[in-house]
Amino acid sequence: MRIIKEIEIGERKANALFDTGAMHTYVKEDILCDAQKLNIPKSYKVALGGRNIEVHELYFVWGEIEGLGFDMEVVSVDELGRADGKELDAIIGALTMEKWEIIPNPKEGTLDLEGLKRREFIEF
Questions:
Q1: pTM for this predicted structure
Q2: Per-residue pLDDT tens digits for 68-113
Q3: Phi-psi region for residue 93, left (φ > 0), alpha (ψ -120 to 50) or beta?
Q4: In CATH, what class is 3-118?
Q5: Would you kindly state where each structural domain of the chain is located, as residue ranges?
């Protein structure tokens, strides 16, 4: 089962697939119009949905799910396609989920958001 939830990115609503198989987080470029951009001195390539993407820049955005805020470093893409009959606006990857302790439960199709609720993390 795929976990697709509506989130907010900036002021925009977005259908997001929470994908532990994706390392990076991807967001459609039309949603990132107000986001802070960082140009990367040396680009790198990622494969996504059967295509190769060359990453030249990263965006830093604020997202919310169920009223709980979190920041993300994202790669801009022109399209992501559909999953479970919904047009995808974002793929939330493992790095974002690990950072905020967002734990998917695919059997129930839910997300454990206790890390976002607690907002306290032990680093060392």
A1: 0.92
A2: 999 999 999 999 999 989 999 999 999 999 999 999 998 898 999 9
A3: beta
A4: mainly beta
A5: 3-118
